[in-house]
Design brief:
By secondary structure, this protein is of the alpha/beta class. It has helices at 18-23, 55-66, 81-93, 104-110, 165-176, 252-264, 289-299; strands at residues 26-27, 114-115, 147-152, 155-156, 182-185, 194-199, 215-219, 232-236, 241-242, 250-251, 306-312, 316-321, 326-327, 335-342, 350-357, 361-367, 372-373, 381-389, 396-404, 408-409, 413-414, 419-420, 428-437. The strands form 6 sheets. A 6-stranded mixed beta sheet has the order 2-7-8-6-3-5, covered by helices on one side. A hairpin with a 3-residue loop joins β19 (396-404) and β20 (408-409). The two termini are 25 Å apart.
Length: 438
C-alpha cells in the first residue's frame, strides 16, 4: 500500500514549547498518565470452555456489550449461552474461527486497539446496506452540503505545535478524492459541520475514554443518527500519538482516516484490511475497494465539474456546482428554469435536457449551455429529464434529483428518466445534478 512521504515535522521533539501547546489548544498530560509501552487492555486467560466461570469472562462480557454483540440478559462471569452466542457473532464479524468459546485467537482479537464505535448498531438505530460488506448507518449529508467544513478544537501534547493537523487534512483529502464532496477547514466560530479534538476519560459526550487501553478514538454519525454529538471526532489523549506508526504509539492519519468514514455515515466494515474495519493494524494512507464502494454509495463518484444555473421565483438566477443542491426546500421559491454547463468542457461529452412547465407542458430538449424554462413568467417547472450525448457518453452516467413542493426530495434518477410530475402542480423547488464516470 502506497504511503506518502513524511514532512520534516514528524521528527520534531515531542511536546514542544508551552507557547506551542497553548497555540494548538493542548492540555499538558499529567505526569505518568501515558508512556510508550503502557499496559493495554488484556484478557488474562487464553482458553475457556462453554459454561466456565472466570473473572475475565466479565471483562469479555463488558466488551461484547459495549460493541453491540451482547444485547441479551446474561450471567456475569459465566460463559453462558448468550455470551457464547455473542462471542460467535464477534468471531464472525472479525473473520476468525467461529468457535463460540474463548480461545487464543479470540483473545488476541479482543485485545487489539480499536475504534470506540459499536460494530453492531444499537437497537432502534437506522441502518441499511446490510447486503454489502461496508455498512451504512442510514444517515448522510448527500443533497444537503456540497462542501463540508471542519475545525480543530484541541490538540495533543504528544506532538509539537499543531503538527497533528496536517495528517487529518490529508485524511479528509483521501476521502474527497473519491466523492463529489469537498472539505474545507474553518474556525470554530464558523459553525463547522465537524469538530476535531483530543480528550480523556469522561469528556461530556456519553462515551468516556478508557485511558491507555483499548479505544483510540470515536466519531459520531451525521444527524439524526449521531444525535446531539453528530459531527464530533474525538481522539483519546491518554494514548500516545505520532505522525507515523511504531510499536506502542498510534498514527494520527490512520485513525483520522477511519473516523472520518464515520463522520460521513459509514459504519464498520467486515472486510479485514479495509480502513473501516474496527481494529487498528498500523499505518494506512489509502482506502480499500470496500471503503470506496461504501462512500460512493452515499455521495456518488467524483466526475466532471458542472455549473448549474437555476432561475428561482422571486430570486432570479443563481449559480451552483455539480452535486450541490440548487434551489430551496419548503420555501415556496419555485424553480422556473435551469441551464447546465460542463466547466471545463469534457472532450466528446455533451448533455441535453428538457422540462415540463406548468400550463405549458413538455418543452423540447435543449443542449448544454442553453436555458430551458422561463424567467419571471410564473411558469414553474414540474419535472425534467437529462441525457448525456456525444461519443464519450457511454463512459459516464448522469444522476439528478429534485425537491418537489409538498412532497420533498425525490430519489435519484439517471440517463433520461423523467424526474418530477406532469400536471399535478407539484412544482420543483430545487434540483441536484452530477455526472460520474462509469
Amino acid at each position: 500500500m502506497a504511503t506518502k512521504s513524511r514532512k520534516s515535522s514528524a521528527s520534531k521533539k515531542r511536546g514542544g514549547t508551552k507557547s506551542d501547546k497553548r497555540r494548538a489548544g493542548k492540555r499538558t498530560k499529567p505526569s505518568g498518565a501515558v508512556v510508550e509501552g503502557a499496559k493495554r487492555f488484556s484478557i488474562n486467560v487464553s482458553n475457556l470452555a462453554a459454561g466456565a466461570v472466570h473473572d475475565e469472562v466479565e471483562k469479555i462480557q463488558q466488551y461484547l456489550s459495549q460493541y453491540g454483540y451482547l444485547a441479551e440478559a446474561y450471567e456475569g462471569k459465566r460463559l453462558d449461552a448468550p455470551t457464547r452466542n455473542a462471542i460467535e457473532k464477534f468471531q464472525s464479524f472479525m473473520k476468525i474461527p467461529e468457535t463460540g468459546v474463548v480461545d487464543p485467537t479470540t483473545v488476541r482479537t479482543l485485545e487489539l486497539p480499536r475504534c470506540g464505535v459499536p460494530d453492531i448498531p444499537p437497537r432502534g438505530r437506522a441502518s441499511s446496506g446490510v447486503s454489502a460488506d461496508f455498512v451504512l448507518r442510514g444517515c448522510d449529508y448527500e443533497g444537503k452540503f456540497r462542501t463540508l467544513t471542519f475545525a480543530f478544537v484541541s490538540g495533543t501534547a504528544d506532538l509539537a505545535g499543531d503538527t497533528e493537523r496536517p495528517p487529518i487534512r490529508n485524511a479528509f483529502n483521501t476521502w474527497q478524492n473519491e466523492i463529489s464532496i469537498d472539505f474545507s477547514e474553518v474556525g470554530t466560530a464558523n459553525n463547522p459541520n465537524f469538530t476535531i479534538g483530543w480528550f480523556t476519560g469522561n469528556h461530556g459526550d456519553g462515551s468516556s475514554f478508557d485511558g491507555p487501553s483499548n479505544v483510540l478514538a470515536h466519531a459520531f454519525f451525521p444527524p439524526p443518527c449521531g444525535g446531539p454529538n453528530s459531527g464530533k471526532l474525538h481522539f483519546d489523549d491518554a494514548e500516545t500519538w505520532r505522525l507515523q506508526a511504531a510499536p506502542g504509539v498510534f498514527d494520527v492519519e490512520t485513525v483520522a482516516l477511519h473516523e472520518i468514514g464515520h463522520l460521513l455515515g459509514l459504519d464498520h466494515s467486515t472486510v479485514p484490511g479495509a480502513v473501516m474495519f474496527p481494529t487498528y493494524s498500523g499505518a494506512r494512507r489509502a482506502l480499500s475497494a470496500d471503503d470506496i464502494a461504501g462512500i460512493r454509495s452515499l455521495y456518488g463518484r467524483r466526475g466532471p465539474a458542472l455549473i448549474v444555473l437555476v432561475h428561482l421565483e422571486g430570486f432570479g438566477d443563481r449559480r451552483f456546482r455539480d452535486n450541490e443542491f440548487a434551489g430551496t426546500r419548503g420555501q415556496s421559491r419555485r424553480l422556473e428554469g435551469f441551464q447546465i454547463n460542463f466547466n471545463p468542457p469534457v472532450p466528446n461529452l455533451g448533455m441535453r435536457y428538457m422540462a415540463h412547465l406548468q400550463n405549458i407542458g413538455d418543452v423540447p430538449f435543449v443542449n448544454a449551455g442553453q436555458f430551458v424554462g422561463t424567467r419571471g413568467q410564473s411558469r414553474r417547472l414540474e419535472g425534467f429529464a437529462i441525457e448525456l450525448t456525444g461519443s464519450a457518453a457511454a463512459n459516464f452516467n448522469v444522476f439528478y434529483m429534485a425537491h418537489l413542493q409538498g412532497i420533498g426530495d425525490t430519489p435519484f434518477f439517471q440517463n433520461g428518466q423523467f424526474c418530477g410530475t406532469r400536471g399535478q402542480s407539484r412544482r420543483v423547488e430545487g434540483i441536484l445534478v452530477r455526472v460520474e464516470p462509469r
